[in-house]
Fold dTDP-4-dehydrorhamnose 3,5-epimerase.
Amino acid sequence: MKVTEVPAIAGAFLFEPTPFTDERGFFCRTFDADVARSVGIDPEAFVQDSLSRSVRGVVRGMHLRSGEGEAKLVRCSYGRIFDVVVDLRPGSPTYLGRATVELSGDTQATLYVPAGCAHGFQALTETADTSYRIDREHDPAQDVTIAFDDPGLAVPWPLPVTVTSERDRKAPGLAEVLRTLGVKAP
């Protein structure tokens, strides 16, 4: 498994498995505790696995958790997604940096999103299954959503947005969220 840093977001990593292919298809390891430890990620910190299924054009995000935040491993297990991470950690050298990565079921690559970063994605295929491994139990009281189309984020969504949740449609902009979190806006 190959691990590379995501330069636009300090502490973010892309894990790319090495598939074994034959006439049946492929097999690959999508998580390896030793590889995670090699880049300073505690594999035992993850307490929840979740899965979403989205249709082409759906945007989920931009989401994060208040308080200590939540780190997650994100992988598109089927289809393709355009994945977005925005660094909202005021002390980070990449504060307000944005990274985009295409994740797909063909590569099974996994993106590590550090706590304190907003995350979202758009489904690029008719069906896209996205797996999440999360380091905190879900507490709805700590859910934070930023408008996916906020000019302050300037996310270049590759497709017209077809569907979002009501929560995502009604989300406040970046500046308002930063004020609410007690973070000085740029």
